[in-house]
Amino acid sequence: MKLWPHGMYLVHGKPQEAAPAGVSEAEARRGTIAWGILEAHNTSGDMDDLRMKFDSMTSHDITYVGIIQTARASGMERFPLPYVMTNCHNSLCAVGGTINEDDHQFALSAAHKYGGIYVPPNMAVIHSYNREMMAGCGRMILGSDSHTRYGALGTMAVGEGGGELAKQLVGRTYDMARPGVVAVYLTGKPGPGVGPHDVALALVGATYANGYVKNKIMEFIGPGVANLSADYRNGIDVMTTETTCWSSIWQTDEITRDYFEVHGRPEAYKPLAPADVAYYDGCIELDLSTVECMIALPMHPSYAYPIRELQANAQDILHEIETRANEQLGGKVRMDLVSKVQPDGRIYVEQGVVAGCSGGTYENICAVAEILRGKSCGNGAFKFSVYPDSMPTYLELVKNGAVADIVTAGGIFRECFCGPCFGAGDTPANGEFSIRHTTRNFPNREGSKPGEGQISAVALMDARSIAATAANGGYLTAASEVCDREPAAPAYHFDQGVYEKRVYNGWGRPEPDYRLKFGPNIKDWPEQPALSDDLLVKIVSYITDPVTTTDELIPSGETSSFRSNPLRLAEFTLSRKDPAYVPAAKAVQALDAARRGGELPAEVAAVYAALGKLGYAVDPAATNIGSAIFANKPGDGSAREQAASCQRVLGGAANFACEYATKRYRSNCINWGMLPFLLDTPNVLDNGDYVFLPGVRAALLNAAENIEAVAVKPDGGIVRFTVRLGDMTGAERQILADGCLINYYKNH
Description:
Layout: E1 2-3, E2 8-11, E3 14-16, H1 25-29, H2 33-41, E4 49-52, E5 56-59, H3 64-73, E6 83-85, H4 99-114, E7 117-118, H5 126-133, E8 140-143, E9 156-159, H6 162-169, E10 174-177, E11 181-187, H7 196-207, E12 217-221, H8 230-237, E13 247-250, H9 254-262, E14 277-280, E15 282-287, E16 294-296, E17 304-306, H10 307-312, H11 314-329, E18 351-354, H12 356-359, H13 362-372, E19 383-386, H14 391-399, H15 402-408, E20 412-413, H16 419-422, E21 433-437, E22 457-461, H17 463-471, H18 497-500, E23 504-505, E24 534-543, E25 548-549, H19 550-553, H20 566-570, H21 581-596, H22 602-612, E26 623-631, E27 634-636, H23 642-649, E28 652-657, H24 663-671, E29 675-678, E30 690-693, H25 696-701, E31 707-712, E32 718-723, H26 730-738, H27 741-747
Parallel strand pairs: 5-6, 5-8, 6-7, 8-9, 11-12, 11-15, 12-13, 18-19, 18-21, 19-20, 21-22, 24-26, 25-27, 26-28, 28-29
Antiparallel strand pairs: 1-15, 2-3, 2-14, 4-10, 7-23, 16-17, 16-22, 24-30, 30-31, 31-32
Family: Belongs to the aconitase/IPM isomerase family.
Keywords: Iron, Iron-sulfur, Metal-binding
InterPro entries: Acnase/IPM_dHydase_lsu_aba_1/3, Acoase/IPM_deHydtase_lsu_aba, Aconitase/3IPM_dehydase_swvl, Aconitase/IPM_isomerase, Aconitase_4Fe-4S_dom, Aconitase_dom2
């Protein structure tokens, strides 16, 4: 794999460094597939300052309640675009009694009232339904799940926080500067046993840490694309999220056309390809024939190794990985990977799972069935489960015998569910090692609770190698060791009747008098204050990890059942990373409540006295008090807005960071009224510091490049420094000034 250190011109399908005579870089930029799609959806008339409207949207049952509640509070009367609500995340969680199904009934009633599309529990995982029924060449889809990626079907899809979907529901636009475009130039053909997850993990490993495609569009082109089936392309594409790119798009061809024809939507196809001359901001050259069977070790998809290399250096690599994992776990519990190496040098794992939008596709499961046919998973500690991505897929696998092959070999065949990807379902025993064809292996994504002394480890692998491992009784095995060809999948026949009989499609037919059905756990968002002239915040958590994931900010898994109750969910904020955060944030919230009641708590009075010695005359009535956290690089991972909203409902007013891991997390902070400060000198802050920001509202609205800040230490010491907010649109600045997106819509 080669990453170009500079831009690339594609000239008649061939990469080259220089532009052809008479062609400018600005002109060539218009030649990418991405440019054409962005231009078609941009309403501003300025391609450097995008204001986009999407063709459709999608959410699952962790996010849609909050989005609809936000849009209702902002004046929405009907869904102005097709909005698909799937139920694939909370369909098996038992926590909280009836509240999961209460959310599902709320979504069904919202589909009636506002004219939406409701996909019942276990019918399909979110991205599979949208591939099958909503994607189309040249379209754009916005989803409230970070893995909203349909680029392999010619659809530019974006995963964002709920606030951005609420904007679309009230007729506003998705605003951003035009992103860069990086070509992924594919040649060659994958070898026997090498699946889409192997290619994806190789790409993630080569691009995540160096930020090569961060917040950019990955455009897949080149002769190698034709050597990949539609399922294979989808499997690579959905994992582009883990590179931290903004979106993805692929050139289309007869294979794409066939996909839409099989799914009964031939009109959704049109050819997409770069122009004769196109300019890209970077280029990744990948010869698919060089990709090996891969494994991404705990606790990130970018910790990718060829399985061959791991097997040859098992002790050294696993020791390095477990040491890094234990540093990240902060001593609460210890991960043990080295013990998985057996006396004969083989690596033993206790669980294999193939599931979700990346693993549960038709061709992946057919490959699993072929590799396992006539074999046995054994009756030892190892266990194996398969989750299909949709009921039409499930039906075809029943018809062609794949389900029988897997079950006969000792595997468990389950329903359409995303749970194994975020820690709900198939949680291993303490200390076990699980290999999964899912999208993430972050801490706790397998469902353990380090704060309660539990830990298990997850590695990502392709379904083919997981099946080879299952056939070998749990001893880690690359599919290339057992496959002399790619397992062949029988022709796929899509039965749309499965959906027609169960999915409620009310698009274009809203019923305004239909009553929303609220369960007792579904609560409105608490009111949030506007930004005051000055601001005082207290640092209540100081996180020094290189990256902080959204799962660490608000854990996934069983807590997802409380997503519809903002205050109840907020009790879990940072619970697995910093259990002291919630009580500390509540204590600061109480200080502001006292201020609003006309009292000046002694702790705050002491801070103001220290500031007074420097000449700051603080007006308590014009100075909100809020909590804040510092983290080096927060926000890697999920698009769930709750990573920000939970801080906000506990009185969070700001974050301080060296950088933000993803655009979507920073957007969530903005939409929930939390100032996303950047600073170059993190050593000026520590846990327990108060930070005073004089004139912050005026600085925000006037787009000041630097904002004055003063840290007051617990011992009374003072440190002056500056912070930045980075590039923002005028609307984003006003949202922060108003206190949150809901307030912004009420005021404007």
